[in-house]
Amino acid sequence: MSKQIEQSDSADSDDDLSKGEIFDVLQNKRRRYTLQYLREHDGPVQLGDLASHVAAQEYDCPNTEVTSAQRKRVYTTLQQSHLPRMHETGIVNYDDESGTISRTAHTEELTVYLEIVPGSEFPWREYYLSLGAVSLAIVTILWVGVYPFTVIPTLVWTTLIAVVLCVSAGYHTYAGREMTLTEYVAQEAESED
Fold this sequence. Notes:
The chain is mainly α. It is 62% helix and 5% strand. The termini are far apart.
């Protein structure tokens, strides 16, 4: 019997992954590191290289400083548990005979779930909620006709609110477009040096 894992039907289908499948796979940091590594490499990757990378992330050290015991521990769990599970759901293609892992159509879908917000970053959802509340308050005051707000024309207020919203969203999009787990870890390491 061949050791090669059969191609799962879900990898070939156009069906979207359920939220349960996504969060089940992403609840483990080794699987998240695997997706990040695949995202950084265009073609298929070798299990040994992946294991070294994941171990380096887990033990917070460069790949060159990963011990053979650390690498073996990660290698074994990736080979026996994580990669087969990710393959079954169609998130990666895993050939255990050759030890290669490659992306599928679903791999890229999951990278949005890997985006993180550093603890030092401004809480954008609260900002947008506050902006909405202030805008609603201004509109209410204008409808009631409270002086001195009525001195400035309604069109100017509307334009001001729209400009603040667009500038905020533009900055937020620009600043966070590539902030994912790997970039954040690298950024943190650079700031500690």
